[in-house]
Amino acid sequence: MTEAGVEAKAQGVPGSVDATVELLRSGGYVCDTSLATSVYLALKLCRPLFLEGDAGVGKTEIAKVLAATLGRKLIRLQCYEGLDVGSAVYEWSYARQMLALRLLEAAGTRDKDALEADVFSEKYLVKRPLLEALETPPEGAPVLLIDELDRTDEPFEAFLLELLSDFQVSVPELGVYRAKEPPIVIITSNRTREVHDALKRRCFYHWVDYPNAERELEILEVKVPAAAAGLSQQVVDLVQQLRARDLFKVPGIAETIDWTEALMALDRIELDPQSFTSTLGVVLKYQDDIKAISEAEAKAMIEASRKAS
Amino acid sequence: MSGEGIFAGREAGSASGGKERLLAEDDRGHLAANVAHFGRLLRRAGMPVGPGAVLDAVRAVEAIDVRRKEEFYWALHSVFVRKRDEHELFDEAFKGFWKDPFAMNQALAILLPRSKAPKRKPQARRRVLEAFKRPPTSEEENAKPRDELQVDMALTASKTEKLQTKDFEQMTAEELERAKQAIAKMKLAQLAIPTRRFRASDRGRRIDPRRTLREAMRHGGDDIPLAFRERTTRPPPLVVLCDISGSMGRYSRMLLHFMHALTNDRDRVHSFLFGTRFTNITRNLQHRDIDEALESCGHDVTDWAGGTRIATALKVFNQRWSRRVLGQGAVVLLITDGLDRDDVSELEKEMERLQKSCRRLVWLNPLLRYDEFEPLAGGVKAMLPYADEFRAVHDLRSLAQLAEALGPGWERKARRLGRRTE
User: Fold this and answer.
1) What's the pTM value of the predicted model, to 2 decimals?
2) Three-state DSSP class for B272?
3) Which of A21, A173, B266, B294 is the most buried (most CB within 10 A)?
């Protein structure tokens, strides 16, 4: 279904929302229509996808799965405060340039233009993620993951805004790099800071929430297929109970998976109050939160989950 | 625009069974018009929906299968919603609108109070009114010394001096007025935190390889003159938590002026007020005009001059806000007298967490004006060990000193002070 305009012409891109759900599932990512619609629109209309949500709900995973299932290269840019062009876009290899300059001079080259053309040529250019993402390898445009954008600062955001609108970067000495095919851009944020509206406006936005019990069980079955059905059910049930509590950091899906794996490594096929409290550190990452769950409460929670199932 | 809306188009599309094109040209027009209409509705309900977003939304719904309501819903959602908080508003608007777009106009009246900027007619501002006042005659001038003050802004040295050290609590109305003007002019010295970025500088100590190379190219000679660069610096974010309970009395009003001056002087300032509740007033203080800012605070904050529950307030902050506003090494100004009715152990726990998640926790306490002040109250005792710095804020001079104390060299000064309070 290719129409005129700014739509994806590349192969492998799903043709409908259902196909997107299937595609992600084939890569081991279980999601519902809400997320799949945003992913599909981003792929189809060649726009960045902006994913916001608490830590451990599987935002980064989407980019990885997309790259794997579409057979594209994954390029990742981890953001931090003070991220600059030198580490995000490109850098010259100064030491080698100096050396080249000396050699050329020693060889008697005096023509300034020739010198410059040689010293500032692509062989001395060190490409960083954003420039790399503008290249289109034969298998199609890469997936560009800009992770935890909220960690960086406003000046970088402004730069990104420019890049994401035209998919081009200018290197003064060499000229403009333009993407033949725009990369598939996934931006994630933990919302430790409000990202500027102008940037969000360029993207399709989705808030990735914690899954409901049914969906979480499905995820667990895909991710830890070796786990006993009873154990998975119990773990999901307890995690859902923990999420309803007043904790500083409620467990994400990553923690659910870790917990199941930890219990399996301990050869448990069922949770009892003792193993619950002794492995709580896998699920809750703050001492205050762990202390808040007493032995008696653990017992009550397990009891509640038994009754429910 | 027909009242049948999109689902009329849906039926036409499915009846013709056209697989190639989901909607006939005419229906597409309908759809676009309805999406635009919906966008306008969201805007009126207080969501920032511009014409660009409407165009994007039309493009998005054309890309999906509009016969399926769920896909349609999430396609519009991914364009119009840009914050988690907007989800509920969108949800309600969607349900109402696509059922009956016209009944929605009435429903909007119910939705409206939730919008961020209700269209209140701005009250005629005091200062503007004053600007239109006729100059007072000499008789009136004698009768009303307050007006004279407004005209004579240049204070004599001794008057200023007195005002500097007079407790806010004891100021007369006119003195308060002048104090407010002085606060509005206060500038905070900026604390410079080094960043990872550099700028070209001849005084810098690091070599700037890029500039060096370009210079070398220009000369093309035998020597390569070195160019230098230095780190750029940036002030850290500032978070102000201010107690507005009854015991804080006038101080909290004055400090609100101070917070407004801070907000308009630098970027990344977040302000919160707490009494029995906890309110974020960052947005309210961003009005340039102090009267407008205070008015909108008064509108949103309902627990003026009541009791305090410091521990509860800090807990709310730690849970809901700290990860969002303390992320980049913020300095926290906690303004309270520490007179608390909450459980002390709880207070200790929350103070500890707060101190551990910020760059520096500065406690400003108006009670410190009394020379014989001793931290006897349970709350004060519990909080003191976790404050990196403990300062008075009861008059103009202490505020000015604070403004200075937050400037360069402040970490060193603070350490010295810290030793004294220990």
Assistant:
1) 0.76
2) strand
3) A21
